[in-house]
Amino acid sequence: MSDKIQTIENLSIGFKSQNGREVFILKDISTQINKGETVGIVGESGSGKSTLALAMMGYTKQGLYTISGQCLFKSKNLLNMTDRDLEKIRGKEIAMIPQNAGQSLTPNLKIGYQIEETLKLHSTINTKDRQLKITELLHKVRLPSPNIMAQRYPHELSGGQQQRVAIAMALAGSPKLLLLDEPTTGLDVTTQAHVLELLNEIAKDTDTSMVYVSHDLGAIAQVSDRVIVMYAGEIVLDGNVREVLSSPLHPYAYGLLNSIPKLSLPGLPEAMPGTPPGLEQNIKGCSFFERCEFATDKCKNSKPELFIPKNKKMKVRCFWHSKLSEKKYKPNYDTHSANKTKKLDEVLKLDKVSITYSKQSILDQLLNRFSEKNITVKDIEIEINKGETIALVGESGSGKSTILKSIAGLLNTKNGAINFKKNITLSSDVRNRTNSQLRAIQLIFQNPDESLNPSHTVEEILSQPLKLYFQLSGDKLKENIIDLLKKVRLTENYLYRFPRQLSGGEKQRIAVARAFAAKPDIILCDEVTSALDVSVQAAVLKLLQDLKNDMGTTYIFVSHDLAVVRAISDKVAVLYQGRLCEFGPSSEVYKFPSHPYTEVLLGAVLEPDPDLKPVLTAEDRVEESPPEIGCSFQSRCPRVLGKKCFTETPPWQISKNGNAIRCHIKIENLFKQQTSEN
Amino acid sequence: MVSQNQISKLKRVSEVLISIFSRPSGMIGFSIVILHIIIAIISPLIVPYDYKEFNSLIMLRPPSEEFIFGTDQLGRDVFTRTLMGGRVALLVTFFGTLIAVAWGGFVGIFCGLVGGRIDDIVMRVIDAFLAIPWILAMLLIVVILGTSTQVLIPALGFFYGKGIVRVARAATHDVIARDFIMAAKARGHSNFSIIWNELLPNVRDAIMVEGAMRWSWMLLAFSSLSFLGFGVSPPTPDWGLMISEGRGLMSFAYWSVIAPIVALSSLIIGINLSADAFAKALGIDRTQKAPV
Fold first, then answer.
1. If residue A32 lies in a helix (H) or strand (E), which one and from where to where?
2. Are residues A624 and A534 located together in one domain of the fold?
3. Which residues in chain B have their CB less than 8 angstroms from residue A409's CB?
4. Are residues B33 and B82 in the same domain?
5. Do A451 and B198 touch (CB under 8 A)?
6. What is the nearest CA distance from A471 to chain B, expressed in angstroms?
7. Total domain count for chain B?
8. Does A522 lie at the interface with B, CB-CB under 8 angstroms?
């Protein structure tokens, strides 16, 4: 083996619970990071991956302490060093790149100054050369015109640029080890792909070791050489990224991989049953015992060791790994049936809907004039049929949530109409809608922590819509509530719990139940799975699909995750800067992404396969506001035709596959260009 | 019958209570306040002398076995008057606080929810009132309407509600940005229903803690009024009044003011300690993370 940068030996970290027992966050972790190696640590929330990453720089979160073991860096144990000594190592030898760079940069200091501070602390460069070094660093992270960038404040940069600055700061001390804690989680798909590409290049150029912590196997697959899978504070699998992802030998890793929706495969992924064990639970045997399909009494009573099976190149903590290697990783998807044959009734139609957040000037108001400036969402035309799932996709700022809010009546439209069941025009203000119109459209939000009132019990939460729309009370109300709980695969036991006593997946189930309580025609889903772990996400998607099949509900599904959209939707609308780019059946849009923007977007999606590299064709840039004339995608489009794109709004074209795109380039020519490049 | 739902809620209340009493500040603070309240209620039955009986023969006696806190310039027993001196103050400020919390809380939540022009107007009026020194305004009210408790309670309640309006409004703004309020709006609930079901349970804690703090300030304010001669009229015993009467003689008859001062300050400290522990138990202390 090559030189070790860091060795972790039998590390256990935990805290004392209220009754004095030791509770383990990390259990007996032993591993090492080699020189020039990128190690991905993957696991669901609560698996201890962040705690492990922090321990690697000698930090334990407040309240936690090292129970046993050590973390050796240059043969010194980081965990019993004084803060003084750690200061010399942190930033210089070991650097950290945080999840949210926007929050970790000081808002009132210029970028250049902040990097200079790091240089002052961690290098011996003199004042004159420091400016050169700053420019060099900013250039290294491929920020355009580094000299100008250095004079900017953090808020003047986009999320991706802020993350690049954070990387530049981490590189300032030329560290031996770089720790990255979910560095791309908050970023758009295209930006994420660019940042990962940058990290790959840095790893290659500087020979820095990296530890990449993420819940996203797609990102891990792109950057890491080795991957460590964590479950309930333990390493369950540790090996070469290609081998782990192609034939995972641990049932947890297997289930995790299976529960990720993939672009290449339509249909819903398989959900993993159960939830991870609680922290205080005393586990004698394998921690995955309760959720494992191979579990036997042996697993219950004795803990498997982490070992390297014969002829394999990975360490695994499972007795039955051989059964898995026989099983061979083969995704099992149940494809949902898009009912194409039946003539479907139209339930909702957006007719040239435009929305703006900016207030109109008094003059415009007086003259009842509609100003064309700063329109967030413009001329959206979508028809939605009963029982269909329509997905709105696009990067942040594409106006997808804005459209959803206006359908719910929470945001006034400036122009156009929302027609419900052909003959009813819905008011754009929720207060002017009738009870039955309100009932017909329900919302499910992204984060169930936010969308459930923390001081209400589950019973109260679910009784709200039932009381409001159906005037139920007493036993009838209770019966209905229990019915709803059963529908979302929960039991009566949940009735009197508060949201904080539920897991993330359970909370989202309650939110789903609340939406279905109204017996709605349309449910608006705003990024409903993005706050959830992948295995939970798969279960929630399955639940939504089942409920739809039972009740014939229509979903309007907003998501930035294109693989999730692929899994659940019948039709896709691709939005850029509040303008519709492409609309069509999802199978067609994914198979033949005709619009240049759809092509860029799909190209940037990360699949959990190290051999499927994202294709980056467009520049990673954020526009502040959409262009006033011409095509909305003009400034980033890799296929700009010419002047026409900047001056004329592109016309709609319909391909023979049934997807409509808005582009000046003839649809046949687009196909030709794409196929010739491939 | 108590429903399952209420049991779940009671559990939360008992958790808060346990948390309050497991803190030294909560334990001491609540004990002091409860002791004061008990004394205020039963004092007429246990005091050794009549509180208003003058006796020129025993004026300004120092503490002795007969009069443990001594006597005042009119020969009244200071111990008796101290025990009874909190009765009016507690009564007035307790109900005053309730009024302050009720109107301040409601106006604050309402303004926070509706926002816009109504919010602007109400808040500017509140600001204007905040600019008036409370003591001047109180004196004006008392001079015009008299010093009866029927005047003092609403007057103090009104003046101390203004601050609660601001706190309630700020707490509402915190909650209102969250998705469950948007969910309720999207379902089409009325403003009243949103205030009652969604907002109140979540801003209640902040308002209650603020109310507890206001109580101690109001107690001080009431005693100041009495001290200035605009609160309780003699011969009714009251700490503020007693301090005022004994003030001139303090240099040689310190005992006539020490007892009411200790009584008043211990009550205020007690309330403050309790409010502090209360806030911490509810998790709205600034140094602690709020429970989700």
1. strand A22-34
2. no
3. 186
4. yes
5. no
6. 13
7. 2
8. no
Looking at the domain assignment, is residue B96 inside a domain? yes
Whether residues A272 and A151 fall in one domain: no
Contact B8 A518 (CB under 8 A): no
> Which of the listed residues B233, B248, B264 is the one where a domain comes to its end?
B233
Contacts of B12 in chain A (CB under 8 A): 498
Does B202 sit within 8 Å of A438, measured CB to CB? Answer: no
Last residue of a domain, one of A174, A205, A224: A174
Kindly indicate whether the ipTM for this predicted assembly is greater than 0.95, answering yes or no. no
**Whether B187 and A464 lie within 8 Å, measured CB to CB:** yes
* List of chain B residues whose C-beta atoms are within 8 Å of the C-beta of residue A445: 179, 182-183
| B189 shares a domain with B101 | yes
Mean pLDDT taken over chain A: 84
Instruction: Determine whether the interchain pair B8/A496 forms a contact, defined as Cβ–Cβ distance below 8 Å.
Output: yes
Instruction: Please indicate, yes or no, whether residues B82 and B95 belong to a single structural domain of this protein.
Output: no
Mutate to test the interface with B, among A450, A502, A514 (most CBs of B within 10 A): A450
Instruction: Of A205-214, A669-678, B252-261, give the lowest mean pLDDT range.
Output: A669-678
CB nearest A454 (choices: B8, B182, B202) = B202
Q: What is the spatial order of strands in the sheet that A415-420 belongs to?
A: A377-385, A346-355, A415-420, A424-426
Task: Tell me the mean pLDDT in the region A213-241.
Answer: 90
Residues B250 and B183 in one domain: no
Question: Which of B179, B187, B292 is opposite residue A500, by nearest beta carbon?
Answer: B292
Residue B33: CA atoms inside 13 Å, Cβ hemisphere, count?
20
Which tokens hold the place of A613? Answer: 């590299």
Query: What is the number of domains present in chain A?
Result: 4
The C-alpha atoms of residue B110 and residue A294 are separated, in whole angstroms, by: 58
Amino acid at the residue A622: V
Average pLDDT over residues A612-626: 73
C-alpha–C-alpha distance, residues B169 and B176, integer Å: 10
Contact B91, B283 (CB under 8 A): no
Contacts of B96 (CB under 8 A, 6+ apart): B152, B153, B154, B156, B157, B160, B218, B222
Nearest-neighbour CA in chain A from B76: distance (Å): 53
Specify whether A394 is located in the same domain as A519. yes
Tens digits of pLDDT across chain B (292 residues): 456 777 777 887 888 888 888 888 889 999 999 999 998 888 888 877 777 777 777 777 778 777 778 777 777 888 888 888 888 888 889 999 999 999 999 999 999 988 888 999 999 999 988 888 888 888 888 889 888 888 889 999 998 888 899 999 999 998 888 889 988 988 888 888 898 888 998 888 889 888 988 899 999 988 888 888 887 777 788 888 888 888 888 888 788 888 889 989 999 999 999 988 888 888 765 444 433 3
Q: Which of A408, A455, A497 sits opposite B201 (nearest CB)?
A: A455
Encode pLDDT of A422-448 as tens digits.
Answer: 788 888 888 888 888 889 999 998 888
- Same-domain check for residues B101 and B181: yes
In B, which residues are within 8 Å of A426 by CB distance?
A: none
pLDDT recorded at residue B286: 44
Domain interval for residue B52: 29-86+237-292
Question: Is the residue at B24 inside a domain?
Answer: no
Q: What is the pLDDT of residues A110-164, one digit of tens each?
A: 989 999 988 888 888 888 888 888 998 888 888 878 888 888 888 888 788 888 8
In chain A, the residue whose alpha carbon lies closest to the alpha carbon of B190 is A431
Cα gap A562→A403, rounded to integer Å: 18
d(CA A624, CA A156): 11
Same domain, A564 and A628: no
Which domain does A591 fall in, by range?
A: 585-678
Judged by a CB distance cut-off of 8 A, whether residue A453 touches chain B is yes
pLDDT score of A319: 85
For A213-259, the DSSP string reads EES-HHHHHHH-SEEEEEETTEEEEEEEHHHHHHS--SHHHHHHHHT
Same domain? A288 vs A372:
no
Task: Assess B190–A contact: CB distance below 8 Å, yes or no.
Answer: no
Closest CA to A195 of A166, A157, A160: A160
Q: Do B189 and A454 touch (CB under 8 A)?
A: no
Q: Which residue type does B110 have?
A: F
Q: Which residue of B4, B12, B292 is in closest CB contact with A495?
A: B4
Is the minimum CB–CB distance between B116 and chain A shorter than 8 Å? Answer: no
pTM: 0.82
Are B279 and B225 members of one domain? no
Of B5, B291, B292, the CB nearest to A460: B5
pLDDT at residue A306 is higher than 80 = yes
Residue B198 domain-assigned? yes
